[in-house]
Specification:
homodimer, alpha+beta, Alpha-Beta Plaits, 10-stranded mixed sheet, 10 strands, globular
């Protein structure tokens, strides 16, 4: 038995998210498992670094799987590229120690959220942008973003009402850049709760639209109440950029 | 009666090209005419600067139309943005003199053709790239490209066998850039025959793959024979970037 690590990019537009749903091939995990199982002629279960939402994307998702095969990483890569649809791309496959597990071994992740802040539509990148015509106060959002840094209980920024494990997470960085009409949020943390990045961005956007004050974040965190935070920003703007390992 | 000039961007992937086909809305022109006619409650005929092929794109297509309306350009823009699908974008509408005609007044055009020259797939821009894994000799293509410059009879680079008008065109610039794994062709001319850019690029790619010599272009032009030129490169890599007016 050998263990393989895959680096993946995908356009999540037409998928129901990362996580397998029965035998349906309309999830990223389902499509990858189906394709790998056919290529290797054995049932393959893959472990992603984490789930991505329906409609969200990845430029650097990591997944691992065990397989009994003599095929090289290069052969596996070529075969997967041949049989996968063009919205799922294998960037690299490497062999890793048997104990490596894409989720359990991960120490952190970086997500990017892209907002197109213009009334002039962006046709070519529309699948990867949340297009918002009303002008954003980027400086107010930057001031508010600083309050997310560090270690907090993020349960107010979690869509799962029955989350039972610890909801304490550490945010190492949250930057907001303007690139022409684009406002790009980049957030790095040791882990993220369900919908956490999208609710953080949704709340920051309400601050950027002056619908809530820029100093609102500490009170929302302290409330531990989902109702106090902003709306969940649309999935299409979200992309898992990188997963970190020791 | 007033005359309007529209600047348009579109992702041509799911359309049968620019040109209207009966009353079908699966062409860019058909979709625009249908939408404008409904908004303005009168039949509107629009004139594009030229046709784009099925599956090809535009970042700066220009179209003009006459209409009997009191609506401002700003109102027309907002209404079109509201009703057009998200793969057709109105960048700008301006009012122009009645004699302006998007095709007849045009003095030149720039097209971009994008090749992704890597075996590592590009998932996010796949609709706008021709992905070609075999390595290209870019220097050989650059030497060959110089032979297209100037005024020539381009009938060998035209898919229409029954073309009756003059097939003499002037190419003002043809640059080939490498941007990471991307090889980008940018060509400016006073006009282009049917499939001309795609056949020019297809021929240059055969030179880049060492399937024909780099000094082949003058003989192909002189032959005036479509059979002597290379294959027509796929439409998905082609984008009409800009149309010039006096």
């Amino acid at each position: 038995m050998r263990n393989f690590k895959m680096l993946l990019a995908y356009d999540g537009t037409r998928y129901r998210g990362w996580q397998r749903l029965g035998n349906s091939p309309d999830t990223i995990q389902g499509k990858l498992e189906q394709t790998l199982s056919r290529i290797l002629e054995q049932p393959i279960a893959i472990h992603g670094s984490g789930r991505t939402d329906a409609g969200a994307h990845a430029a650097g998702q990591v997944a691992s799987f065990h397989a009994d095969t003599t095929r090289s990483c290069r052969e596996l890569t070529a075969l997967l590229r041949q049989y996968l649809p063009e919205d799922i791309g294998v960037l690299e496959i490497t062999e890793v120690p048997l104990r490596f597990h894409a989720r359990l071994t991960a120490t952190g992740k970086t997500y990017v959220y892209r907002v197109w802040n213009s009334r002039v539509p962006n046709v070519f990148e529309r699948r990867y942008l949340y297009q918002l015509g009303e002008p954003l106060d980027v400086e107010a959002m930057k001031r508010a973003a600083a309050d997310f840094l560090g270690t907090h209980d993020f349960i107010a920024f979690c869509s799962n009402k029955h989350f039972k494990k610890s909801s304490v997470r550490t945010i190492m960085a949250l930057t907001i850049e303007t690139l022409g009409p684009e406002v790009r949020f980049t957030v790095t943390g040791d882990g993220f709760l369900y919908n956490m990045v999208r609710i953080m961005v949704g709340t920051l956007l309400e601050i950027g639209l002056h619908r809530r004050p820029a100093d609102d974040i500490p009170a929302i965190l302290a409330s531990r109440s989902r109702e106090q935070a902003g709306e969940t920003a649309p999935a299409r703007g979200l992309c898992l950029k990188e997963v970190y390992y020791p």
